[in-house]
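Record filed below.
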Amino acid sequence: MGASRSLDVLVVGAGPTGLALAAQLHAYGARFRIVDRHLDRARESRALAIQPRTLEALAPFGVTDELIARGNPAVQLRMHLPGRTVRLPLFDLGVADTPYPFLLFLSQAETESVLCGHLDEAGTTVERGTELLELTTAGAYVACRLRHRDGTEENVNARYVVGCDGAHSTVRSQAGIGFEGHAYPQTFLLADLEVDGLERGAAHAYMTEAGMLFFFPLGSPASWRLLAMRPPGGPDTEGPVELRQLQALVDRYVNDPLHLRDPVWMTDFRIHNRGAKRYRADRVFLAGDAAHIHSPAGAQGMNTGIQDSLNLGWKLALVCRRAAPEALLVTYESERAPVGRNVLRFTDRAFTIATSRNPLLRLARTRVAPRIAPLVLRLPYLRGAVFRTLSQLAIHYRRSPATAEGLHRPKRGPRAGDRLPDTPGNLHALTAAAGYHLLLCGGPRDAWDTGRITSITGGRDHLIHIHRFGTNSPWPEITQCLVRPDGYIAYLAGGTDLTGLLNYLDRWLPSSEAGTAH
């Protein structure tokens, strides 16, 4: 048994959620380790789409361009109906406030590869083949027992532990956090393979009375991801998935002569809809699938997990560096649990409608919806609302304890708790450096008291970057805006009186205990 070692954060699980958390902990100078019981990262596609908000959130680490280069930014959906095909746009709205107005199809294997490459360059090693056996909260630390691939065991004391270890989370079980919900009765078939006869550059959905079949463009490890519900009561309801089964299913659902070949990965699976009763138990936190699992409807799962971790990572790091109070950690659950619950509700409703055998719902799914959808999506407002919801750009933290508005709040533009838009002036690139960003907008440059600004940021200057704008900002009037490390607006006020800002910083970023930048 190895001697006890101490660190700030132990990250358990090295999927996309854990890898993103590790990237942020490194960026903010936390002492951490990331372990995973598996000997290798994912090689199958698994999750297959990255939403615009996730691409934005990962951009400060310098990985987003590589993700896009490896992926397929599809903007078209082909909805195949009996006798005709309906062409529907996905994310081609020309949205100006994000640099990524598209859904990026990319296998989870590639996403993990890019994130692992970033950590390797940063000098962070993912400890593969290392399993968490036990954890116990003991005062100011969590005592953890790890087992390595060679069978040796090690004791580690961590100030905090984050479970990013999936639906069967050991961290969640050891922390005694309930995981409530249900499993759906249907079984699904999944495969990454090649398909002859299928138009490239678009996603395809076949809507029939017998069931639904989807093809999503991947590129790697294969050109296509196939997803279909296994027909109930068929001859192949048990045993391993075989290519002949998938071909028979395609022949049943599709009038076009599609030929499946060269499968890289085939499996069947059941879908659950479950959520953790809490996202935190003392010094133990949950993120990603350890906190919520649901159907793949809307491509929300991996994206929600990554954004969980990027909400939590900077908070943990600043608290561990004594640059922020412990109360900041309370905001993780208050901000992310409502998001998780909304995703569970949305995916449950979408899944029920998509799979129900109720005659009315089947009629709506195969006859009514395909005819209405093209008409509805011609309306810019409705298309924009759908885009912002699915892309997760609409998520906000307006009710968070760590969100505040001062006097003379601007009447137009984003509000405190909203995501900072990327317009005008490439604001995301300007605010990519680790830390908070204070935007002083509107009026002449001498409208802002430089001495007053210095007195407010003194002792915090390594964590607050100051940007002065004229009228080229999201707000037409004189505005002061403090942007959090995860890109959301923490404090917003009008005018040049910085008293409210100082009060906010004294509560959430006290200068007397600020640490050293990394």
